Amino acid sequence: VPMTTLTSLDSEALNRLHDTVRAEYEAFKARGLKLDMTRGKPSPEQLDLSNPMLTLPGNGDFFAEGNVDARNYGGLQGLPETRALFSQMVQAPADQIVVGDNSSLALMHGTIAAALLKGVPGSKAPWSDGAPTFLCPVPGYDRHFAICEEFGIRMIPVPMTGQGPDMDAVERLVADPAVKGIWCVPKYSNPSGETYSEETSRRLAAMETAAPDFRIMWDNAYSVHHLTQDHHTVPDILALCAEAGNPDRAFIFASTSKVTLAGAGLAFFASSPENVRWYLERASFRTIGPDKLNQLRHVRFLKDDAGLERHMAAQAAIIAPKFEALLETLEAKLGGTGAAEWLRPAGGYFVTVDTVEGTAKRIVTLAKEAGIALTPAGATSPYGRDPHDRTLRLAPTFPSLSDVRAASEGIALCILLAAIEKQTGDAPGLS
Ligand code: PMP
């Protein structure tokens, strides 16, 4: 039944609806389900797509191009054929890419640690000499914010607009020399799903920053993770920065965690030639070389851009129906009620739902009591504090399709119940 806006109901109608929704919620709870919509993890079926990799490069195939023995030490920057294969995905020339081990998060953590201790090209002093500060577009990725907290980097939230961060605010804030960087997930952003516009990217590349060593942490984690035929693109940030006279401004990060194997993929750092030299020098103190067999394995398995594209289409075929199920359920249960707003993402791993102000924590509690694990309310803001207590991040990829359906129903009920409670002024009295 299409519902009317909650706020248009008189108190009698609202009380009746409260009783109905509470009864539905109790019935859901009585099903005793155990569902998890917390983390953006690939499902077992997605990982199965990469099972052929488990026997690659194979017993006897360990020579990379130029007769490089992939079993041995060395090759700090990564195999040339691996860098070439991922050049389009990473959006950087192969000679400006470094292949790390399996986690791009580790590369972000490492570059920031090095910046704090030693500075980056353009630094007059290590970042830790001042009161280093990062701009954090909100909603954003909790693990980015956690790196800042871990290292004592102050965070300033900046709202997202649907086209990336509010650039008027960003341009104002970078006039402070303490502001050393900004977190960006430019395509199918975690968690809003939005893609930065050309204008946003240009302004980021060209803006005047008081810090001469300002860095854009361009985490293109979802670069090839399309859910529809409408494949979003983002501009070549390295080229934009170079054109604007800020060639060293962007650090690009990416990985195959959600392409091949989340725990055994490849991570990439890419930047200007100067930054790549800086990075490789830092890396040279940390390791004698990366796992080149895994690099070779990825080349043997994906082969070329067409192979990568086919593989990602197979991924989308598995996860798009889960997004569809979630979005359909939200629409059916909440459409027109005013209890929530959400965007339909064209890629990535998340759906962000904005609920009635002041209800997100309550929704997470209600969901937990009904057997659904949700990401803690506030996780998408720096310090875990959502000043509006309204943003939920839903991750539908890992559970089975039927579990996603069930969880979505339960979540919609919790959202609706919390909105009604808020409006009736009911103290939460549910066990
Ligand atoms: N960046 C973003 C935006 C992510 O969403 C994730 C995974 N949830 C990561 C980085 C982690 O990537 P990796 O597995 O390469 O460490």
UniProtKB/TrEMBL annotation:
Pfam families: Asp_aminotransf
Cell cycle among keywords: no
Top-rank taxon: Bacteria
Keyword Endoplasmic reticulum applies: no
Key words, A-Z: Aminotransferase, Transferase
A GO term for molecular function: L-aspartate:2-oxoglutarate aminotransferase activity
Gene3D superfamilies registered for this protein in UniProt: Aspartate Aminotransferase, domain 1 (3.90.1150.10), Type I PLP-dependent aspartate aminotransferase-like (Major domain) (3.40.640.10)
PANTHER family tied to this protein: AMINOTRANSFERASE, PUTATIVE-RELATED, ASPARTATE AMINOTRANSFERASE
Protein name (database record): Aminotransferase
Naturally occurring in which organism (per UniProt): Methylobacterium haplocladii
